[in-house]
Design brief:
Radius of gyration of chain B: 20 Å
Largest sheet of chain A: 6 strands, mixed
Number of strands of chain B: 2
Number of domains of chain B: 1
Strand content of chain A: 25-35%
CATH topology of the largest domain in chain A: Rossmann fold
Strand content of chain B: under 5%
Shape of chain B: flat
Order of helices and strands of chain B: HHHHHHEHHHE
CATH class of the largest domain in chain A: Alpha Beta
Helix content of chain B: over 70%
Number of strands of chain A: 14
Structural class of chain B: mainly alpha
Largest interface: A-B, 24 and 20 residues
Oligomer: heterodimer
CATH architecture of the largest domain in chain A: 3-Layer(aba) Sandwich
Chain lengths: 302, 215
């Protein structure tokens, strides 16, 4: 299936210390794709590249089949964007900001905008500079949704919002996606938030995508296995061995892509499995990041 | 689109714009008052010298208006790191043209105020023989000077805050260098003014005839 967003071989460098190298990412059409990563992982930079706000050194980005940044204006007409930091003109009122945004978006839905403004309890005459963080978050989501986009790119849209506002914003988002079938790329470091709403997940760390898979595989497929007697040289595995820790008496493996019948693999190599531990999404996320960093520190290739 | 960009810019500079338009309207009034307002009999030489004394204020005001509107044209975008403008579904050149158009439209009230005021006050006084009023010529020169200033500083301000600061610094350095040259040679010759005053230079508008009344 072709993706709503496809990134291939993306390379970007910012200063001496940060680099995105050979990034490949696909947001399937109709999917809600959770883009996970620690602070500074490169999520915002990747999103800015996807939105055409930055120019890559190499690689291709297509959004709904349109090349970015070459076809950015046409692409942006179909994409709703909530940036990490509020970017609206602060001296405008809520109503003026809506009018300003509407002037540039041919598919602007005035009824939907008014409805969302009422649902979000936003005062139309209030200047943006005087909105609370939660109100600003709501306004950003309102603007992104009311332009009726085919793709939503949301960079930490609920970061710093209280639970009530977060629920309001996410409910509006999910209602829209359910009704219009838009594809969504949403970045966050709040793992549990993404767990509830996303059907795909990508994990990024230090400029690299560590994993990309359907959420159900991520949730059920990451295991920590305690075993012994595994040979040093391993034959081909039916799962992905993320990390092999031999510092304990029993070896500890971190694997992804795990399914129950795969335990037969260990019989085949003469290893004895003592325990297969389920990791919840947050544990899986943390373990993936840790394993990725250890591998990189050793100069290894996963 | 232009409509909302104009409103957005106006929201930031509305009071300033009103003040500048008021000054533009007041300047011809003050100029005529300086010439005719003391109740003494007027003679042509005194009219010309008094009008010439007021004339530097017109290009100064034109410069201030052009500078103010140009430097505020990109402020809101600078504050948001240009992210909002760049995420709008129009090419960047189109957005820049909209900002330019909005800025130009916001210059119109000051031009109108000056034109009306200059026309009305010069029509209301009796000029000595051989002295004429030039409200239209003054307004055209005022518009041209404002537009030159606006265009220059609009381009400087269009980049980042940093590049705008570098642009202003470069202008400042050129002015200092020109002054140092004059001081070192001990002459009043200024290479900078020589270039600016060249007949085809857009900056020559600054140094032409600015009197509201003249022979």
């Amino acid at each position: 299936m072709s993706g709503a967003i496809e990134v291939r071989g993306l390379h970007y460098r910012a200063g001496k210390n940060f680099e995105i190298r050979d990034l490949n990412l696909t947001v399937p059409v109709g999917a809600i794709y959770g883009f996970l990563g620690a602070n500074g992982a490169g999520k915002t930079t990747t999103i800015r590249l996807i939105m055409g706000l930055l120019r890559p050194l190499a690689g291709t980005i297509t959004v709904l089949g349109r090349d970015v940044p070459r076809e950015s204006p046409a692409m942006l007409a179909q994409v709703g964007f909530v940036p990490e930091r509020p970017h609206l003109y602060k001296h405008l009122t809520v109503e003026e900001a809506m009018r300003f945004h509407a002037a540039f978006h041919a598919r602007w839905d005035a009824d939907m905008a008014r409805e969302l403004r009422e649902d979000f309890l936003l005062d139309p005459s209030r200047p943006i500079a005087r909105l609370s963080k939660g109100e600003t978050g709501k306004l950003l989501m309102l603007l992104a949704l009311a332009q009726r986009p085919d793709v939503l790119v949301l960079d930490e849209p609920t970061d710093g919002l209280d639970p009530v506002v977060r629920r309001d914003v996410l409910t509006a988002l999910l209602d829209f996606v359910a009704r219009d079938g838009a594809s969504v790329l949403v970045s966050s470091h709040l793992v549990h938030e993404l767990e509830r709403m996303c059907d795909w997940v990508g994990v990024m760390d230090r400029g690299s995508l560590l994993a990309e898979m359907p959420m159900h595989s991520f949730k059920s497929g990451i295991k920590r296995i305690r075993l012994e007697n595994a040979p040093a040289m391993l034959p081909e595995m039916p799962f992905v061995l993320v990390e092999r820790d031999t510092s304990h008496r029993d070896e500890r493996w971190l694997v992804r892509g795990w399914q129950a019948p795969m335990s037969q693999y260990f019989d085949g190599i003469g290893a004895i499995v003592h325990e297969v531990l389920d990791l919840d999404l947050e544990e899986g996320f943390v373990e993936l990041l840790r394993a990725g960093r250890v591998t990189r520190a050793r100069g290894g290739v996963r | 689109m232009l409509n909302v960009i104009v409103r957005e810019h106006l929201r930031r500079v509305g009071p300033l714009l009103i003040a500048l338009a008021a000054i533009a309207a007041a300047l011809p009034v003050l100029s005529v008052r300086a010439v005719f307002g003391h109740g003494l009999a007027v003679d042509s030489m005194r009219v010309l010298s008094t009008a010439a004394g007021m004339s530097p204020y017109f290009p100064l005001l034109a410069f201030i208006i052009g500078l103010a509107i140009a430097m505020t044209a990109w402020n809101a975008d600078h504050d948001g790191g240009h992210v909002y403008a760049l995420s709008l579904p129009i090419p960047r050149w189109h957005y820049a043209l909209l900002r330019l158009g909005a800025g130009l439209l916001l210059l119109v009230p000051a031009f109108t105020a000056l034109a009306l005021s200059a026309t009305i006050v010069t029509a209301a006084v009796e000029l000595p023989p051989s002295i004429h009023a030039y409200p239209l010529a003054l307004t055209i020169r005022f518009c041209a000077t404002t537009l030159v200033t606006f265009s220059l500083f609009f381009s400087i301000a269009a980049g980042s805050k940093k590049s705008a600061a570098w642009g202003l610094l470069a202008i400042f350095i050129v002015l200092i260098a020109d002054s140092l040259y004059q001081a070192s040679t001990g002459s009043s010759y200024s290479p900078l003014f020589d270039v600016l005053l060249a007949s085809r230079s857009p900056f020559s508008f600054f140094f032409g005839q600015w009197s509201l009344v003249d022979v």
